[in-house]
Amino acid sequence: MSKTLATAHIFKTGPGTSIQDLGRMDYGKYGIPTSGCMDSKSSQWVNLQLNNPNDAAVLEISQPGLGIRFSAPTMVSIAGAQAQVLQNGKEVGNPSLIPIMAKDQLEIGQFITGARVYLGIKYGFKSQLELGSRSFFKEITPLPYFSKEGKVSFWDEASTLGVLHSKAKWDHRWFEKEELEVYLGPDWRLLDQETKSHLLTASFHISPLTNRMGAQLLETVENKLPELPTNPVFPGTVQLTSGGKIIILGQDAQVTGGYPRIFQLSDLALSILAQKKPGQVVRFSKLVC
């Protein structure tokens, strides 16, 4: 059966809902951030359930309150934060695979644990492709985020539907750990031993200053770091300012920075951080290379 292009209508949403994939590669030299999913572990899991490529575009939902209506049959998968999921007003117990019929409505309600939900669809969402990626980013894509009455296309294919005798269950416990595994950054050597020890043993709290650009931690760390020239930075780079602030860069962060780079988060640590809410605790754990 041939596929035709259908439409998903977003009839309500909280702030911060966007289309994301694995991001834009090789454009850092032009000052363009990578963007892409903050929690790539969850986004790749939903694509695996749907037999999609890893980089198929998904919805990243950062606040409760999404409502989406589908114009044609398809299959969707939901992972990331543990949240209440309703299909046509009825709660879905295991949303890892959900058959969708024309005019079906999905709603994402209260977040129970975690901070971001990922909604994947068979063949991926077909938002506008810009510089090799569908990821929303201000000044590159037409929209930075969805608002009420948003629309996005997908491939209609009724043959993807069928009786689901069993389906995988998403385990939310992996992002409840406090440890963020890190590699030592290029400027780690500039710290004295006391500061190094403190950074690897202390607990830190996520501040409210947290978004796709990055996360700032509440506690400060006194240091005697020198002024440094601007250097390349990446999602997951941990910077320590001369005033003692710790900043962990996110997917939409700038591609260069002048603050010392003390750590680089592992891919898994980036996904764990993406699921942390303000006030939650994290600790840095050095990876042995």
From TrEMBL:
Domain Carboxyltransferase: 29-289
InterPro entries per the UniProt record, alphabetical: CT_A_B, Cyclophilin-like_dom_sf, PxpC
Name of this protein: Biotin-dependent carboxyltransferase family protein
Highest taxon above the source species: Bacteria
Native source organism of the sequence: Algoriphagus confluentis
Keyword Transcription included in the entry's annotation: no
Keyword terms of this UniProt record: ATP-binding, Hydrolase, Nucleotide-binding
Keyword 4Fe-4S tagged: no
